TrEMBL record:
<keyword id="KW-0663">Pyridoxal phosphate</keyword>
<keyword id="KW-0808">Transferase</keyword>
<protein>
    <submittedName>
        <fullName>Beta-alanine--pyruvate aminotransferase</fullName>
        <ecNumber>2.6.1.18</ecNumber>
    </submittedName>
</protein>
<keyword id="KW-0032">Aminotransferase</keyword>
<dbReference type="Pfam" id="PF00202">
    <property type="entry name" value="Aminotran_3"/>
</dbReference>
<dbReference type="GO" id="GO:0016223">
    <property type="term" value="F:beta-alanine:pyruvate transaminase activity"/>
</dbReference>
<dbReference type="InterPro" id="IPR049704">
    <property type="entry name" value="Aminotrans_3_PPA_site"/>
</dbReference>
<dbReference type="GO" id="GO:0030170">
    <property type="term" value="F:pyridoxal phosphate binding"/>
</dbReference>
<dbReference type="InterPro" id="IPR015422">
    <property type="entry name" value="PyrdxlP-dep_Trfase_small"/>
</dbReference>
<dbReference type="InterPro" id="IPR005814">
    <property type="entry name" value="Aminotrans_3"/>
</dbReference>
<dbReference type="InterPro" id="IPR015421">
    <property type="entry name" value="PyrdxlP-dep_Trfase_major"/>
</dbReference>
<comment type="similarity">
    <text>Belongs to the class-III pyridoxal-phosphate-dependent aminotransferase family.</text>
</comment>
<dbReference type="InterPro" id="IPR015424">
    <property type="entry name" value="PyrdxlP-dep_Trfase"/>
</dbReference>
<keyword id="KW-0670">Pyruvate</keyword>
């Protein structure tokens, strides 16, 4: 292909990137990824880069799986597209829905497909509001979520999320979405114990429901573990209290499992880690390991029967249950099972990475290192004892660390001054050694730069 500089110039001239400033593209040029295998990316300069983020938290099965390419090709030849509107269906959409229902806990037996996590959360807004309309309570339309939660970037899902930079542009949030504080003990817990803080943050939900009026609140949505917010693992007291409050007021509970689903936490769903019993789960990413764009909502019997039993639900996307994406996702779920990938996470990859990741707490820049399954984070701090933030603009040190990682051929993302990781679930102990070696070198260089 073309030389890197030419590709970068064309990219900057014609390609508008998500969450990226044009000026940065023009000045520095994009890193151009050309191929990938296992946990390694190759860029247009031929560099081998370890992907500690599985793309955007999605390539759970690892890169370059021929089985998935073959399934996609076969499906394109057999039935490249058909819709699932107006009482039509097709084999891949049916088979995948049945498989998802088998894997999902409780009576989460129904799948409403979407093309992405954002679309699925837009569906959820309409689905829970429709549920209460059918129940004869149309005024019950408020959805409560958390500041620093992430649910996508469309008008609806971006409103559900509590990301201030997203709300700062384009008039979000839409009406009747309200936010409460996040269960981020390390950054916001002050002198409370994690357990006290978890309860205090969960009780903000009860306060918000009382303030708005319980008869107005349709649903609460949260990620079992906030991903894009910085891999924030909530204190153990948090989710049971949220569950109790949702049950008490009879409001629907939506678990956004877009990152935490399909083995990322060592269970099929993050809800199972915390004993959450959601009425709806949002899924995407690991559903197809990112090989095809597909997402959806897994819906419990009561909500599906109520909405479905009341005539048309006037909602849907052209690509709901797209046959190629559905066939790829189904094969991906089969591979995860055939290769016992969850066992690998629980018995091999997590224990080894956890040991090495936790040891990073000895590093002078690292305040805490946490990991559930294969999603983790480290908090960078100038003062471990007080868990203080840096005096610089939030994210300055994190960005510097991310850049050192890139220079050392490792992808780690930063969220403000937390570094986050989510490697492919197939990562081996030998690859974990390379990961930790590159991460440590990057932290050392970042620390040296701060002292200079
Ligand atoms: N929900 C969560 C928890 C996510 O992390 C994301 C994406 O990162 C989304 C929803 C949005 O998914 P998508 O980018 O596929 O629209």
């Amino acid at each position: 292909h073309m030389p890197t500089k030419e590709l970068q110039a064309l990219d900057a001239a014609h390609h508008m990137h998500p969450f990226t400033a044009d000026a940065d593209l023009a000045k520095k040029g994009a890193r151009i990824i050309t191929r990938a295998k296992g946990v390694y990316l190759t860029d247009s300069e031929g560099r081998q880069i370890m992907d500690g983020m599985a793309g955007l938290w999605c390539v759970n099965i690892g890169y370059g799986r021929k089985e998935l390419a073959q399934v996609a090709a076969r499906q394109m030849e057999e039935l490249c597209y058909y819709n699932t509107f107006f009482q039509t269906s097709h084999v891949p959409a049916i088979a995948l829905a049945a498989e998802i229902a088998k894997l999902a806990p409780g009576d989460l037996n129904h799948v409403f497909y979407a093309g992405s996590g954002s679309e699925a959360n837009d569906t959820n807004i309409r689905l829970v509001r429709r549920y209460w309309e059918v129940k004869g309570q149309p005024e019950r339309n408020i959805i409560i979520s958390r500041w620093n939660g992430y649910h996508g970037s469309s008008m609806g899902s971006g409103s559900l999320g509590g990301m201030k930079p997203i709300h700062a542009q384009g008039g979000l949030p839409i009406p009747d979405i309200h936010h409460i504080g996040q269960p981020y003990w390390y950054g916001e817990g002050g002198n409370m114990s994690p357990e006290e803080f978890g309860l205090a943050r969960a009780r903000l939900l009860e306060e918000k429901i009382q303030e708005l009026g319980p008869e107005r609140v349709a649903a609460f949505i949260g990620e079992p573990i906030q991903g894009a917010g910085g891999v924030i693992i909530p204190p153990a007291t948090y989710w049971p209290e949220i569950q109790r409050i949702c049950d008490k007021f009879g409001i629907l509970l939506i678990a956004d499992e877009v990152i935490t689903g399909f083995g990322r936490t060592g269970k099929w769903f993050g809800s199972e880690v915390f004993g959450i019993k959601p009425h709806i789960m949002t899924i995407a990413k690991g559903l197809s390991s990112g090989y095809a764009p597909i997402g959806g909502s897994i819906v419990c019997d009561e909500v599906a029967d109520t909405v479905g039993g009341a005539g048309d639900f006037n909602h849907g996307y052209t690509y709901c249950g797209h046959p190629v994406a559905a066939a790829v996702a189904l094969r991906n779920l089969e591979l995860l099972q055939e290769e016992s990938i969850l066992d690998h996470v629980n018995n091999v990859a997590h224990p080894y990475l956890n040991e090495r990741w936790k040891a990073l707490e000895e590093h002078p820049l690292v305040g805490e290192a946490c990991l559930i399954g294969l999603m983790g984070s480290i908090a960078l701090t100038p003062d471990k004892a007080t868990r203080a933030a840096f005096a610089t603009e939030p994210g300055t040190v994190g960005l510097r660390c991310r850049e050192r990682c890139f220079a050392n051929n490792l992808v780690m993302r930063h969220v403000n001054d937390r570094m986050v990781i989510a490697p492919p679930l197939v990562i081996t102990p030998e690859e974990i050694d390379v990961f930790i070696e590159r991460a440590t070198k990057s932290l050392d260089e970042c620390y040296a730069g701060l002292k200079a």
